[in-house]
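User: quick one, sequence for these tokens?
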């Protein structure tokens, strides 16, 4: 059993504790519909804030991941068979909550030839039917580099295609075993080759042992591969079974990286200690469109 971390964190990492009526309602809803959220599975520090605003990031393809990334709290092991009713249940939750913007992510499903791309597409289509005015962002795995799988997802026309590189290439063996840095960059570049109207997004966790020059180099490579939105946040160790925190970045350092990203040409950079991929996702896209 993983041991929870109770170390003292810097003042700027304090978060709102989960609770309240909206949190209770979301918990009941996800239980009733047998849905998973990355908020809970990945122990997101923003769960209290986001659920209080009746927003959640739905995690499809089950809640067991086929990879063993060193930073992630999502359970690992042999996944269950695909649930083809899951897309309609996600759409039902979106309609019930009256969402105008939703983020859908997943575990890795390396047991499937398409990595679960079909379920992503079916989920996007189900949400469009249930709530036509809802914008859809998908945070996808790398599908082991399958262009066909990526095309399946893009054919359903999400508004934003997000795929996180997570860290700098030097740390991939520890942080993302089973993933390849260049493969992730190629995936992001392929999005605009297939459909140039879809916005691309990626993100990194900081504090795993990288240095600033490596972060800036990875940011530049993301821009060179067509990435338009960037998220940068502090890595927080979920338990003693996960990679240790090498250091905490200050809010000022995150602000500096944001400015560097804007200078590089990103249309939006969400950078801060508590930033995660779906944090303020709706305002990120609206900010670009209203610029």
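Assistant:
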């Amino acid at each position: 059993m993983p041991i929870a971390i109770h170390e003292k964190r810097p003042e700027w990492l304090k978060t709102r504790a989960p609770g309240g009526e909206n949190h209770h309602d979301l918990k009941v809803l996800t239980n009733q519909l047998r849905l998973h959220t990355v908020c809970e599975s990945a122990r997101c520090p923003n769960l209290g804030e986001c659920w209080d605003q009746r927003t959640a990031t739905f995690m499809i393809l089950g809640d067991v991941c086929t990879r063993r990334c060193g930073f992630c709290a999502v359970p690992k092991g042999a996944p269950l068979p695909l649930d083809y009713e899951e897309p309609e249940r996600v759409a039902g939750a979106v309609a019930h909550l009256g969402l105008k913007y939703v983020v859908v992510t997943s575990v890795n499903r390396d047991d499937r030839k398409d990595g679960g791309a079909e379920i992503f597409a079916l989920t996007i289509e189900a949400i469009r039917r249930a709530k036509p005015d809802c914008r859809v962002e998908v945070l996808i795995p790398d599908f082991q580099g399958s262009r066909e799988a990526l095309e399946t997802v893009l054919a359903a026309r999400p508004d934003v295609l997000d795929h996180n590189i997570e860290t700098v290439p030097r740390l991939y063996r520890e942080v993302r075993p089973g993933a390849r840095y260049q493969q992730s960059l190629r995936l992001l570049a392929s999005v605009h080759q297939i459909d140039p109207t879809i916005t691309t997004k990626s993100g990194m966790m900081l504090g795993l042992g990288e240095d600033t020059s490596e972060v800036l180099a990875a940011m530049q490579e993301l821009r060179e591969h067509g990435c338009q939105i960037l998220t940068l946040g502090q890595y927080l160790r979920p338990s003693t079974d996960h990679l240790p925190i090498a250091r905490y970045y200050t809010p000022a350092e995150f602000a500096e990286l944001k400015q560097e990203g804007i200078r590089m040409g990103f249309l939006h950079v969400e950078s801060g200690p508590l930033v995660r991929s779906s944090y303020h996702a709706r305002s990120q896209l609206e900010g670009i469109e209203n610029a």
